[in-house]
Automatic annotation (TrEMBL), chain A:
Residues 113-401 form the NADH:quinone oxidoreductase/Mrp antiporter transmembrane domain. It is found in: Mitochondrion membrane. Pfam families: Oxidored_q5_N, Proton_antipo_M. One of its GO terms (biological process) is ATP synthesis coupled electron transport. Its main location: mitochondrion. Belongs to the complex I subunit 4 family. This is NADH-ubiquinone oxidoreductase chain 4. The keyword Aminoacyl-tRNA synthetase does not apply. It comes from Opisthocomus hoazin. Keywords: Electron transport, Membrane, Mitochondrion, NAD, Respiratory chain, Translocase, Transmembrane, Transmembrane helix, Transport, Ubiquinone. It catalyses: a ubiquinone + NADH + 5 H(+)(in) = a ubiquinol + NAD(+) + 4 H(+)(out). InterPro entries: NADH4_N, NADH_Q_OxRdtase_chainM/4, NADH_UbQ_OxRdtase, ND/Mrp_TM. Residues 1-109 form the NADH:ubiquinone oxidoreductase chain 4 N-terminal domain. Its EC number is 7.1.1.2.
Length: 458, 135
């Protein structure tokens, strides 16, 4: 555990002390080495918790998310090179340090076995994200985006704090294994209902659930590319991971899952249909994130083995796919400085290599077989069908709409006539191709061995 | 009085439920009042100005990479950022919101609850046939 956290923290002196010419190669290489080092967490073990210390433990739910978060840091650093190239060196270092500051907290959040440490690191990831969005966003709307992000998450997590403290007084400990061993101390009364709601709502806002998702399009759209990648790939999964942990701890015996599940499934449908009416490319990808995470929440609510497995696979596949889509949208934005969807059309004849990456990203987003996105969506659909037959209408329509808006996005950006007002477009750089390769390669390789991320105890 | 000359085919052609009157057959296009002609001239002036701006940028020896279209920007702003500021809760919008936003949630909660309760009742009575047997 420490062999990854210490190098991660040491990245900060590395960015401060690197010579200007070697800043980007140093940080990218260092973070790639950390990512390679983190792969050993995926090795199977018969212990319930790997790398057990007093405060951390990695099991099959945390290890794919941890590897994803370590893998994403070099990708974020690579993606930010272009829009930072005209900044003075100290500002570049500050940007990289803000990105690096989030990583130890995310790793703590995913690997900790104690609820209070999880809460602290969960909240601590907010501040550097807020800095990324409000300081380095591009439009004046980034201020309202930052406020929405901060206050939605904070207001919903205060009841979480109170309930964690209450749980501490009831159980005497907040260690996840100990809480599981003690029989559920949540009484079946108003206290129990309220504490279950309180425990879940913070993660529902983060995940996000349909009614509480207003912060997400704003934050994703106004964030710089590294912020968008971080939000889409990691911070949303914090919410999903939190829901999985909480529901594993105390299976809700009351009727709480009805409103959450309905909101999640109906929200998947509604946000997919909103995607068809979007004018802003990044906003489209942001709403598609809400749709996919709605499926994840619905799967976590029914608490069966298959549904948890499907939720895990969907979280990882969606993390990589969504991050790749944001990188692609950013390549468009850097060339035209506009996110309007109909502005950057017909790019396939102009940038054919980038069109390949667009195609691959959109194919994985619409859950094409044999990608892991499809495995996840099918698993979740089947688990929900078993729970109640009528869910298939909602999930079926949601998947149909997902395919249609993804195809809409692909055809709009790649096919058609090139707009006449674009007089020149820069070529795709090798850096961008490398970025897309590093996104799509794990997705394609995981098709061959999905049990690495499926949360199945080996 | 004797009836006047019969209406010509053009005058007898009037709009009906299926076809509207084309501009060429509408007398108002030809006998335009001075106000209408002034308004037409103003619109033509605006269009000509925009076209001149566009062509100046397009035929510039060092053209900018993107010629920005003000109409497109205004349209995008109106669709993305100006929705809530121009929203006002009226009886109609409240009714629509309740019907399409709150209604389906309650509907689906009721459907799932009824389905689950029916299944639970069948399990309690021992009549539920497990579709996939482990044996």
């Amino acid at each position: 555990m420490l062999k990854v956290i210490f190098p991660m923290i040491m990245l900060i002196p590395m960015t401060l002390l690197s010579p200007q010419k070697l800043l980007w190669p140093n940080t990218t290489m260092h973070s790639l080495l950390i990512a390679t080092l983190s792969l050993h967490w995926l090795l199977p073990t018969y212990h319930p918790y790997k790398n057990l210390t007093q405060w951390t433990g990695i099991d099959q739910i945390s290890s794919p998310l941890l590897v994803l978060s370590c893998w994403l840091l070099p990708l974020m650093i690579m993606a930010s090179q272009n829009h930072l190239q005209h900044e003075p060196p100290m500002r570049k270092r500050t940007f990289i340090m803000t990105m690096i500051a989030i990583q130890p907290f995310i790793i703590l959040a995913f690997s900790t076995t104690e609820l209070m440490l999880f809460y602290i690191s969960f909240e601590a990831t907010l501040i550097p994200t807020l800095i990324l969005i409000t300081r380095w966003g591009n439009q004046p709307e980034r201020l309202s985006a930052g406020i929405y992000l901060l206050f939605y998450t904070l207001i919903s997590s205060l009841p979480l704090l109170i309930t964690i403290l209450y749980l501490h007084t009831q159980t005497g400990t907040l260690h996840l294994t100990m809480i599981k061993l003690n029989s559920s101390t949540i009484p079946a009364s108003w206290t129990g209902t309220l504490s279950s709601i309180a425990l879940l709502t913070a993660f529902m806002v983060k995940a996000p659930l349909y009614g509480l998702h207003l912060w997400l399009p704003k934050a994703h759209v106004e964030a710089p590319i590294a912020g968008s990648m971080l939000l889409a790939a990691l911070l949303l999964k914090l919410g999903g991971y939190g829901i999985m942990r909480i529901t594993l701890l105390n299976p809700t015996l009351n009727y709480l899952h009805y409103p959450f599940l309905t909101l999640a499934l109906w929200g998947a449908l509604m946000t997919s249909s909103i995607c068809l009416r979007q004018t802003d490319l990044k906003s489209l990808i942001a709403y598609s994130s809400v749709s996919h995470m709605g499926l994840v929440i619905a799967a976590c609510m029914i608490q069966t083995h298959w549904s948890f497995s499907g939720a895990m696979i969907l979280m990882i596949s969606h993390g990589l796919t969504s991050s790749m889509l944001f990188c692609l949208a950013n390549t468009n934005y850097e060339r035209t400085h506009s996110r309007i969807l109909i502005l950057t059309r017909g790019l396939q004849p102009l940038l054919p290599l980038m069109a390949t990456w667009w195609l691959l990203a959109n194919l994985t987003n619409m859950a094409l077989p044999p990608t892991t996105n499809l495995m996840a969506e099918l698993t979740i659909m089947i688990a929900l069908f078993n729970w109640s037959t009528f869910t298939i209408t909602l999930t079926g329509v949601a998947i149909l709409l997902t395919a249609s808006y993804t195809l809409f996005m692909l055809l709009m950006t790649q096919r058609g006539a090139t707009p006449t007002h674009i007089t020149s477009i820069q070529n795709s750089t090798t850096r961008e191709h490398l970025l897309m390769t590093l996104h799509i390669l794990p997705l394609l390789l995981l098709i061959l061995k999905p049990e690495l991320m499926s949360g199945i105890p080996t | 009085m004797a009836a006047g000359p019969r209406p010509t085919a053009a005058e007898a052609y009037r709009p009906n439920r299926f076809v509207s009157l084309p501009a060429e057959l509408d007398p108002a296009t030809f006998d335009a009042s001075p106000e209408k002609r002034r308004a037409e001239a103003e619109r033509l002036a605006i269009r000509a100005r925009l076209k001149r701006q566009y062509q100046l940028q397009l035929n510039n020896p060092n053209p900018p990479a993107i010629i920005e279209d003000p109409a497109l920007l205004r349209w995008a702003y109106a669709r993305t950022q100006n929705v809530y500021p121009t929203f006002r809760p009226t009886p109609k919008t409240s009714f629509l919101g309740a019907l399409f936003a709150v209604g389906p949630i309650l509907f689906w909660i009721a459907v799932f609850k009824a389905d689950r309760d029916r299944k639970e009742k069948l399990i309690q009575e021992g009549k539920y046939e497990r579709p996939f047997s482990v044996f």
